[in-house]
Amino acid sequence: GALHCWGVTVDWPAVYQGSGAHRVDLPTYPFQRERLWPRTALAAGSAESAAPSSADLQYKAVWRAVGDPGAVTLDGTWLVLGADRDAVGAALADRGATVIGADLADAARTRRDLAVRLREVIGEGKELSGVLRLPSAAGESGLTGVLLLQQALGDAGIDAPLWCATRGAVAVGPAERLADPAQAQVWGLGRAAALEAPDRWGGLIDVPPTFDEVSLARLCGALAGSGGEDQLAVRGDGLYVRRLVRAQRAAAPVTEWRPSGTVLITGGTGALGGHLARRLADLGAEHLLLTSRRGAEAAGARALTAELEERGTRVTVAACDVADRDQLAALLATVPEEFPLTAVMHTAGVLDDGVLTALTPDRLATVLRPKVEATRNLHELTLTQELSAFVLYSSFSGAVGGSGQANYAAANAFLDAFAEQRRADGLPATAIAWGAWDGGGMAAGEAAVSERLSRHGVRAMAPARALDGLQQALDHGDACLAVVDIDWGRFAPGFTAVRPSPLLSAIPEAAPRAADGPGPREALATLPDEDRLPALLDLVRSQAAAVLGHGSADKVDATRPFRDLGFDSLMAVDLRNVLGAATGLALPATVVFDHPSPQALARFLDGELGGTAVTRVLADLGRLESALPRLDGADLGPEVVGRLEALLAVARAAAGPHGPDGSPETDESSESPALDSADDLFAYIDQKYGTR
Hints:
The chain is α/β, with parallel strands linked by helices. Among the domains are: 151 residues, ACP-like (Non-ribosomal Peptide Synthetase Peptidyl Carrier Protein, Chain A, Orthogonal Bundle); 179 residues, Rossmann fold (3-Layer(aba) Sandwich), CATH 3.40.50; 59 residues, no CATH class. The protein is 41% helix and 14% strand. Helix 11 packs parallel to helix 13.
């Protein structure tokens, strides 16, 4: 249940002065350093970094009405998928789009089959301006279909943004009942996709039960992308957009919640469950029923039981898979009559992190089962009980998004939606979207994960302060509350670096800071040619060191491949994001492995920023080099090889008596092997310029 979500930023003050376990070396450019890495009040140890009060850790997602978009025009070709494609397609066509409508359900079993079918439906040589997937049937999440579609679009080489529509997955106000929590899972995955693949993600739109002319016009307005909104809801009274805001508290709570009877804590022997159990014992809980997969055999279970009993609470520890309905029913039948069940606290969950392209339906199911299925079982099997609390441990990743956590975000988005639906039905329910916890938890259990969260501005909360947030949510009757300690000066710039997002626009601390002089990109771009590439190489090495958890960029060899340095796909996304924030460039998710060493990546960035002719040529050659291995042998026919050989001839003629770096040929260079093939070309480039 701990937060495993992140935002990324170039933390210039931390880079300059050192932050936490990291301290990186700076380029030795005395006249440019203050322009590139300015000191600000966000430096480690500043007053702004002081721990906030418990109230300052609490946030809510709200919906705000915006004006109707009015008449809009849609350009290009749109692929529309789903049952309502005829009506929606006609509305898009009326506004200027060319529409291809299709039902690909028969091909959606595997991403490979879906990619093939997409190519067939779209046709050769056609480019799409957008893809719209319409809602799944009621009660069906559509999550696996969205995952496979997002992956297949990439596999098919289709870069058009994907928009996903749901129906009843959100409620825009207290008077509206959230109808279909299952479809909220798509919102969790979509928020992660926006961070991982910003160039191939459009957004999320919740639509009304049926379409009419007005709602179709609003849908088209949302797809037109006015204002950069990517989390919207179409309703009968207008268009709504989603915002994260600080929770505002009434002067007095609705009630002061206290435990009584039996309180069931799933995952009760884990770190988070243990912290909760201690708090409930201190509040006078009569009987705590703690479950886990191993029950009393779980690590620390006996010590926790003894500690709780010393506080005057009766404790039962049981082995139970709460996602197994029969096991849970048998467990609930053992609740003693003298201590009837009065509260459910569902803290259990598992992680299986991975970038979107690496996720599978099985990996979705692994994370969804202890969240989604267990919650449904707990709900259905306690409907006859007089509960005072039904608490679901959710995550900030479900509310905001987290790269590498699409499955976890999807599961937790369901919990938030389910709590809203229970509240609308008059039942107690509170979902807490937790940030990172200190003193144990899924994130705290892995040092690398905790360090990653801290680097991105997500600070670990003391358990007591976190649980104060839960108490206040119960006292004030909150359905959903985010409790997270965030350094917005770090989190917000990284969150919006690869994709501008209005989601955080209602939080003053997350607002962009006024630039004092030229920004990093302008400063880099205006450096002399001979200084810019070294500066970029230092930037790449220092940020690679931070991602890897090294204390110094000295441990990052400029010519060593990123994979050999220890980078995985999620680390590559991290580095992409931080470099995008630093340079202002829209970098593809694969940029780190497309330019597989710090030196090669720095040259690519230099070329994108308008570097020398040599660096621009080398950057283009790097893209070609990375593309060749992905082509089938049949694609590398005589035409491709012939073009490469012709380019070699032109390059030789242009070089003349000088080497490719412009210097006179030496005897050593004249003895270089003849460049008679593409392999010779790339081998020579590697030797001469160290592009690998």
